[in-house]
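Q: What does the predicted 3D structure of Ribosomal RNA-processing protein 4 look like?
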Amino acid sequence: MSHISNNVCIRLTSDVSSQLVDKSIEANYSSKDVKYVLPGDEITSDQTFMRGHGTYLSANDTDKQLIASIAGIVEPINRLISVRPLRTRYNGEIGDVIVGRIIEVQNKRWKVETNSRLDSVLQLSGVNLPGGELRRKTAEDEISMRNYLKEGDIISAEVQNIFEDGALGLHTRSLKYGKLGQGIMVRVSPSLIERRKNHFHKLPIGANIILGNNGFVWISQTVAEGSESGGHVLDFSDIPLQEREIMSRLRNCTLGLAKHKVMLNDTSVLYAFEISVQLAYHPKDLLMPEVIALIAEQTRHRLNEFERMDVN
């Protein structure tokens, strides 16, 4: 940035580089210490290492150096060295559960914002009809697309395929997917969402949560058993105050854990919720930095205890 002097930039770069450059590069990268780099930092001058994502070779012909092209964490895999960016867009994989927002209705498809580099695509053939009827989509269905989903609707879906340009193809051909009703959507870094077999959770505190692999988290009231309809039957009645407070507390706990880089899953979010209740904090108190820092630290401690018990 223009207001930062060159001296400051040089000092930052040299401090980080001094932690990374070591004569014994293999011993250096075999340790468990995390290695951070800035763009332009030298990673290694050992030419036996291969260049991975986020790196490039210097133009110096006499002494080829491996240089970081992005800010991130050095990740060596055998002789291949890559740099994983600290913040990045969502890179989808087939089978991922996502939460997205409809941004455009097109010919036989919807465009969906999923926090990825390109807008995702939901084909008309990839959605369930009302009642779960399975049949080929007709011209009448194409005309009625906006009755199914329109701009601004929030949906849950699954990544079905990845196109050549990197765009994601989605589908909602299961009654657990579809349009979402009343709730709160929280946006966090996709790297903080822990990959698990199940990303739909019915929490015992009286709320449902969907942890989308793309970093969008959906918090809603508890849905009655057997009421899954793919979003074609939604309840827009007033939500009781107690349930709204539960959802607000969950929302603030989720954002607080993400701010302090705690991995998000149903266990960590539930621990943070329970700790905030035990400490008698009101949901609005969780917006205070010192309060959420305390809850995040106690949640991390409780997760470590749980892992130790699980190992033993």
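A (community wiki): The structure tokens above were generated from the sequence. DSSP finds seven helices and 17 strands in the chain. The domain at 6-85 is CATH 2.40.50.100 (OB fold (Dihydrolipoamide Acetyltransferase, E2P)).
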